[in-house]
Design goal:
This protein is α+β, with helices and mostly antiparallel strands and 673 residues long. The protein folds into four domains: 5-89, Phosphorylase Kinase, domain 1; 93-155 and 170-378, Transferase(Phosphotransferase) domain 1 (Transferase(Phosphotransferase), domain 1); 425-554, Sandwich (Immunoglobulin-like); 563-668, Immunoglobulin-like (Sandwich). Helix content is 23%, strand content 23%. Helix 5 (108-127) packs antiparallel against helix 8, helix 5 (108-127) runs antiparallel to helix 11 (257-271) and helix 8 packs antiparallel against helix 10 (237-246). It starts with a strand and ends in a 5-residue tail after the last strand.
């Protein structure tokens, strides 16, 4: 007999709705509201995995703020003991996989409408800097309305699933729905989600994913890279043109999600009452994307985990991300859209309208300035564009940039505009300069009449640093509970493993632009014994900084809050260095509160000189040089090369305020010489 049980302090699990590889889904009661929600309870091993748990916590603000009519809204995340759960809206209905399994195929109008809804959900996510990365019928829910509403879910589950799959198998995601660039360059962008939505549309029309079939996952991956999707006999040419654009091999030839959705909606009246097509047979041969049989080439094999870049957007350069073109209005030209020109395909299709002029290949889109490109990142990812880092702003919330012209004063307890009340006592605490180059200053405004203290934290740095940042809001005295806090930004309580609950920590969703400042303020109930006690207020600000540092000292070796936790660097030289070869150089961080280097979180490796995610978060400006052996070593893109024989060589690096040097090594003659 199934029994209820508590989930955290707020929810009660009542009945199990389903189960899968990641865990179980339950109907639960929210004890605060009395409403029914769905709770996806993940398998216990996830709660025991520090890396997955950290990523889970880091992304909760994004998920909570992702609100759209076609998205299954996340209401809460629960991390307690071995319970790791996502609480979301309960959607009464079934998933799209069940609908497709029962019907075989869907009428073109229904398939186009559902796909347009999915694309609009993706467009909203992309606008917020979120990629889905696992779009498939299983993750699309249909309500029991008439016609059914469409809800795209499992944004967070996709990331956790990929994180685990990478460590276990070296494979990212579900191969049937993955874009070619994921296999050839391990690059994911908004265009990859659009490709997956194109696979979904093909499957709804034909009853099978276009490149699925026999063979291993590697064989499926190879087909995504090299083979043309088989034509669907009987679909209108205009619908096929949109489908083929979404399934373009090159990411920059695919339409943005919003534009693809608009094009599908334009076709709905003409698709009208067209009947569903029969299920397409599985191809016996695969035609190459160009001509002739599909070759086997381009797919990366099983690679080391450290090279796979799991669980993040992994947009390595501006060219890898699809240009975010505006959604065209009805009748507007669509430069990404070309009518099919393949003879076999054309003969299998019908037309909705009179035949158009000759089709043209999609033009190369002129590159926009870096600040306007539609580049995406998750909350902790910075993108490399044109050789420099481009800050695309905080994903969640709005923070005030320090400077002239602002009308709001973040020091006000109510968070509104205008000056701090005249009776407020305002004190600035000491400046704290961290090794990463981050400078922190706290200013307290005490309002005796309101009995509140508003603390404004200002973070600044010469190089861009990625957030979120951590702030401890300690209780007024030892043994008291955490105070009630009102933030000027949508901060959330921190539950990172290793941070004690008594630290009263908060995760603050801000990034620090290079050469500038960013502020956030919070207000707590507070009483000074003497309304004019400047020293007492200053001690409070100093105590806040001390409590923040002490809380971060307890974290496990993970890159969370990297800008605040970086203490030192370790420069490692691999093996024997010989003339004519690059030096095996690896730079890893040393976190505050730890005694050893973190050999998992690599900042820089000469084997893969592209800036790592962690280095990008820390500003990306790693200087690499040698203070001796200048005749023996030369540097290209921070990679040292051994030119001539030398002895007593070292390599030095600098990041922020940290300088570190490698062990001494000799450059030996190449054994072949």
């Amino acid at each position: 007999m199934q029994t209820t049980r508590a989930l955290g302090s707020r929810y009660v699990l009542e009945r199990q709705l389903g189960s899968g590889a990641m865990g179980t889904v339950w109907a639960a009661v929210d004890q605060r509201t009395g409403g029914t929600v769905a709770a996806k309870l993940l398998r216990p091993e996830f709660a025991r995995d520090p890396e997955i748990l950290t990523r889970f916590v880091q992304e909760r603000s994004i998920l909570l703020d992702l609100v759209h009519p076609n998205v299954v809204r996340v209401r809460d995340l629960v991390v307690e003991g071995e319970d790791l759960a996502i609480v979301m809206d309960l959607v009464e209905g079934a998933d799209l996989r069940a609908r497709l399994r029962a019907a075989g195929t869907l009428p073109p109008a229904e398939a186009a409408r559902i796909t347009a809804d999915v694309l609009e959900a993706l467009a909203a996510a992309h606008a917020g800097g979120v990629l889905h990365r696992d779009v498939k019928p299983d993750n699309v829910l249909l309500t029991d309305e008439d016609p059914p509403g469409v809800r795209l879910g499992d944004f967070s589950i996709a990331r956790l699933a990929q994180e685990t799959t990478v460590r276990m198998t070296g494979v990212l995601g579900t191969p049937d729905y993955m874009a070619p660039e994921i296999f050839t360059a391990e690059t994911v962008s908004a265009a990859s989600d659009v490709y997956a939505a194109g696979i979904l549309l093909h499957e709804l029309l034909a009853g099978r994913a276009p490149l699925a079939g026999g063979g291993t996952g590697y064989a499926v991956a190879n087909r995504h890279v090299t083979a043309a999707p088989p034509p669907i006999a009987g679909i209108p040419r205009e619908l096929d043109a949109v489908l083929q654009a979404m399934l373009a091999k090159e990411p920059d030839r695919r339409p943005p999600a919003e534009a693809a959705a608009a094009s599908l909606r334009e076709l709905l009246p003409a698709l009208g009452e067209l009947p569903a097509l029969p299920v397409a047979p599985e191809p016996t041969t695969w035609k190459a994307a160009g001509t002739g049989p599909a070759p086997a080439f381009g797919v990366l094999g099983h690679r080391p985990v450290e090279d796979l870049d799991p669980g993040r957007t992994n947009v390595k350069a501006s060219a890898d991300a699809a240009p975010q073109l505006p959604a065209p209005a009805t009748g507007e030209a669509k430069p990404w859209l070309a009518a099919p020109v393949d003879d076999d395909t054309a003969s299998a299709q019908t037309q909705l309208r009179p035949k158009r002029g000759p089709a043209h290949a999609a033009p190369v889109v002129e590159e926009e300035p870096a600040a306007r490109r539609g580049l995406l990142r998750d909350r902790r990812t910075w993108l490399v564009a044109g050789g420099s880092l481009v800050a695309v702003g905080a994903v969640v919330g709005v923070v005030a940039l320090v400077g002239s012209g602002g009308s709001a004063d973040p020091r006000r307890p109510d968070g509104g505009g205008g000056a701090v009340p005249a009776e407020a006592l305002v004190v600035t605490g000491p400046s704290e300069e961290l090794p990463s180059g981050l400078t922190v200053v706290r200013e307290g405004a005490y309002d005796a009449e309101a009995g509140t203290l508003t603390t404004t934290v200002t973070w600044s740095a010469e190089n861009s640093l990625a957030g979120p940042l951590f702030e401890s809001v300690p209780a007024a005295a030892d043994g008291r509970s955490c105070p009630d806090v009102t933030w000027s930004v949508p901060a959330v309580r921190d539950v990172t493993p290793g941070v004690p609950v008594t630290a009263c920590g908060w995760e603050v969703p801000v990034d620090v632009p290079g050469g500038s400042e960013v502020t956030a303020s919070y207000t707590v109930p507070f009483e000074l014994e003497d309304d004019g006690d400047v020293q007492g207020l200053r001690e409070r600000l100093v105590g806040t900084g001390t409590a923040t540092g002490a809380a971060l000292d307890g974290l496990v070796a993970t890159p969370v809050y990297a800008a605040q936790r970086l203490e030192d660097l370790e420069v490692q030289i691999d093996g024997t260095v010989r003339v004519g070869a690059p030096v095996g150089l690896v730079v890893v961080p040393v976190w505050r509160g730890t005694d050893a280097a973190d050999n998992i979180a690599v900042l820089f490796s000469s084997r893969n000189p592209q800036p790592s995610l962690l280095l990008q978060q820390l500003g990306g400006e790693l200087e690499v040089r040698t203070d001796d052996c200048t005749g023996s070593l030369a540097f290209t893109d921070r990679v040292p090369y051994a030119n001539t024989v030398g002895s007593g060589c070292t390599v030095s690096v600098r990041l922020g305020e940290i300088e570190a040097r490698s062990r001494s090594f000799d450059v030996l003659q190449n054994s072949a010489g």
